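Milestone M4 deliverable, item 7.
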Amino acid sequence: MPTPLEVLREATRGSQYENQLWLVGGVVRDELLFGTSPKDYDLTLEGDALACAQFLFERGVSSISPVVYPRFGTAMLQVLGEPVELASARAESYAEDSRKPDTRPATLFEDARRRDFTVNALMRNLHTGELFDPLETGLDDLKAEVLRTPLDPDTTFFDDPLRMLRAVRFKHKLHFSFVEGIEPSIRRNAMRLKVISPERITEELMKMLALPNADEALRDLQELGLTAEFMPEMDAMVGVNQGDWHHLDVFGHTLAVVKSCPPDRPDLKLAALFHDIGKPPTRFVDDQGRIRFFGHEAVGASIAGRVLQRLHFANRDIDFVQLLVKNHMRIGSAEKWSATAIRRLIRDMGGRIDDLLLLCEADQNGQKATAPKLDFRNIREQVDSVRQVTPKEALESPLSGNQIMEVLNIETGPEVGNAKTYLTELVLEGELAPDDEDGARKRLEAWRKSTKP
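Output delivered:
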């Protein structure tokens, strides 16, 4: 089966676009570094990319009509199920209060100068295979494994502040280093992140959390002053001493927990990032000189919700993080659990108990070696044992809300929820069978009498 690039090459052979299309960016960089390329393709040409996209669509190359962005001279196609972006070579200029540039048609050299890093400005001709280094430094920087901006870094980062986040991500994705001048420039321009939309910041953050060395990227974000601009709550963890069980401050411990999460679980790493964010505002020292953080899990869940809403995360992601943060202290220090406690935890976690155990195990791994340790394999065996013999209905009230209202002769309101919770707790404690509706009615009537003033 042909590749998208082969289809594009054949479709433009013999046309005005032959030898005029250049692959650029990550597809060229990663091919040179790793012998692989991403499954999205960026191509540029000195000419009208929108007209080229329409040409390809009319030839049946793209399965979708071109999605065009005339202001930027770009068009999106889909070739053999893979996204392809065509862009006219352009030069850009930026207003101080925006990252959206004014553009004009330009040469390949000018187009390379507007990009974020020299290693991302390398080009390869679609038809001839010629490798082109328009800035004459990209190949050397690739071999030296360094990130360098095409222009003075202050200009590059001021024009598009998102490039500062990309600098951190590429540094740790590629295991490159910054050339001299990059770090101080990021610190000088960090406040420019205020012109970046929350969605773009979130996208970069999640790409970093997807890296195996996400903890290192997060440390750079903090040390370079970037988190102070979009997540100052993280900076508040720096330097907060935790006491006996910890050899690191709250921030250092948080990074250790992120590192201990499964590498392919950016969602779990996000929860790890927030799991102790409630410690700074709850820290106090008791009469015996011990450091305490009572209630930090509830405070942390609230803070996490505010931060993630501010960054425009999806509600499902916010709910997931808050659920884990709020419950991450429930495992406690007990090695042996009762079936009732496990059923209650299964019920409260709503199918996320395995994720909670992963987070709690990572949390434990982030403590110093001499801290007490739980055997999480044993805990998982206990949970699995209870889960196998506990149907979903065994975690619920035998009576529905409507049935409760009928028994108690009440309207919709808080009392219905309280009654349902009471019956559910009886089921969890083993005092009431999950299908015993008659028994539930009797217990409910007795509960009503005992709670009447």
